[in-house]
Amino acid sequence: MANIVMFVILAAVIIGSAVMCVATKRIMRAATFMLFVLFGVAGLYFLLDYTYLGAVQISVYAGGVTMIYIFAIQLVGKRPLQGLVERMKGSRVFCGALVSLAGFVVVTLVLLKNGFITTCCDYSEEVPMKTIGQSLLGSDKYQYVLPFEFISVFLLACIIGGLVVSRKEGEEK
Predict the structure, then answer these.
(1) 83 by DSSP, 3-state: which?
(2) How far apart are CA 129 and CA 127, in angstroms?
(3) Cα–Cα dist 27/21, whole Å
(4) What is the mean pLDDT of the chain?
(5) Would you say residue 99 has pLDDT above 80?
(6) Of the candidates 27, 46, 51, 64, which has an alpha carbon nearest to the alpha carbon of residue 156?
């Protein structure tokens, strides 16, 4: 029962923070709400007793990606960010809501068709951590070492981009 209560609390924090991250107009508040979302996901990992994945979530995503995001914001400066405020029109909001609803319906239909909901709710078999580790860092089919390498190249590109932006600002002055 306590697990269900904690799950509901974490789900509410994640959903509320995600909505506020997208809805806010201030970029530092968006970064803060994104940090809350990432911490909430780490809390879900800890709730499932996957302490290693929870620690990786906090250190890699909540720590690293958020810090890169905040550094990029600080390096850009105030002038380019001031013109980014866009007014929302009713037709755009309606179209966005319609596309979101269509996407939700498609995802739900795919989950129901493939029987994913019934198989994921079967608690009779627990996946060992060794299997998860081999899936994440293996190089066979349906294993994820290549996406991890792409993410590392992406983060390196973000760091280099931040250095280029900061260097251009320093040379102009």
Answers:
(1) coil
(2) 7
(3) 9
(4) 79
(5) yes
(6) 64
